[in-house]
Fold this protein.
Amino acid sequence: MSQTKNCSPTCHSFKCLKNSSFYRQGNVWCKTTEEICEVENCTYITCFKRRLLPKGICGETVKRKTVEIKLESVPVPAVKLRGKALKRFRNDDYF
């Protein structure tokens, strides 16, 4: 799965929202345009697994990149409490 692939109408997760796709001559055709179904240009195409990305790319073939972000130590401002809040947090080790 190192290379991304385009979504195809023959995928089991593929769905046309207008119900206008059908098989003809070994290809998937669109009833509204009377042409072969093009995933990149159609606005009525969806994926049951919600993996369809823009430009018709299948999200299951995309490798995810994670980046660790180092957080700088930010000084926490001191908070002064009064009344019930002070009684509640006085004995606990919250600071």
Observations:
- The chain is about 10% helix and 20% strand.
- Residues 14-61 form one domain.
- The longest strand covers residues 21-24.
